[in-house]
Amino acid sequence: MAAMFRPLKILLPATKHPPVRCCSGFISRMRYLNRLKEDDEACAAALQDGVFFLFHRLSPLLQRTERGTFRPAEVHCTDLQSILERLGSDGSSVKESVLIGCSEQNQAQFCLDVGELDQAAVEEECQGKFVDLRKSFFLLRRAEAPLVAKGQALLRWHQTSGFCSATGQPTQRNQSGSQRVCSSSGIVYYPKMAPVVIVLVSDGKRCLLGRQSSFPPGLYSALAGFCDMGETLEETLNRELAEEVGLEVHSVSYSSSQHWPFPHSSFMVGCHASVSPAHTQLKVDHSELEDARWFSLEEITAALKVKTPPRRGDAPSLWIPPKHALANRLIVEWVEQQRQSEKVE
């Protein structure tokens, strides 16, 4: 197979190396988180001083800031217990929260779905709004979106993993929510993600984007496909491009990876791929894609300037996934590569 992984120089701004003290702080947080996952008593104690991100039927609670932007609403334990009790819920339901992270101040972060309560009442108490996660990705900053995505993914996993697939008996979670155990057989279950390869194909001057019929009007993205059992990433990438657009690639470069909560917790592996300029004719499988097209640097540059999706009634214009999406990163990297090539020429 000609396609092989080769290192790709990331063209986004580089992050400065933190001083040793910050590294030590990171190690301390990771070890603290690991202890909370394994020690039920330690996790129960951390709940009392923790901060909570609320969901209502898997939609995160957002608050508008003074600058008009949005952020995930943070509720402290004592405030959350008071709110739950005022709305007629047992304050002990806080124990159903799931651990999702730890702040730089070593404050444990949890998520809790309050879908059994009246949505409007919770919004009024917390001065926020429950927003569908897909829409939230356009409203939150890059550092905040992954946090609510992780929270939703873990909450959904617990909601759908209440019974053992081998015995049919109920499963019980540990305090942190990092695992579930069959009450009969003792089988341990952990949250899982489905591996997906997402690839931006280039012929040297243009990049290839596609869209599914379920996409909003004008939205195009990099091509992606789930890994079949036993496949390598390279094999998945080559198979998907052959199936969906009838292309063979001659080189592949790894970019980066990302957890993606749609539709149900995928692990996205981002790559760049090249095809020969002499073999760019597309044969789109319309059972897989509604459309796939080559786009010029000028078209992609204009699409990157579109900050919000077109409103209903507006003429469809090309736009791409939000900054939090790995597809966006791949497109930005490609644009930077093209600009550097133009400078060299």
UniProtKB/TrEMBL annotation:
Keywords: Hydrolase, Magnesium, Metal-binding, NAD
UniProt source species: Xyrichtys novacula
Reactions accelerated catalytically: NADH + H2O = reduced beta-nicotinamide D-ribonucleotide + AMP + 2 H(+); NAD(+) + H2O = beta-nicotinamide D-ribonucleotide + AMP + 2 H(+); NADPH + H2O = reduced beta-nicotinamide D-ribonucleotide + adenosine 2',5'-bisphosphate + 2 H(+)
Obligatory cofactor(s): Mg(2+)
Name of the protein in question: NAD(+) diphosphatase
Gene3D superfamilies: 3.90.79.20, Nucleoside Triphosphate Pyrophosphohydrolase
UniProt-listed NCBIfam families: PRK00241.1
One annotated GO molecular function: hydrolase activity
Database matches in InterPro entries: NADH_PPase-like_N, NudC-like_C, NUDIX_hydrolase-like_dom_sf, NUDIX_hydrolase_CS, NUDIX_hydrolase_dom, Znr_NADH_PPase
Sequence ranges assigned to domain Nudix hydrolase in this UniProt record: 191-322
EC number(s) given by UniProt: 3.6.1.22
Top EC class of this enzyme: hydrolase
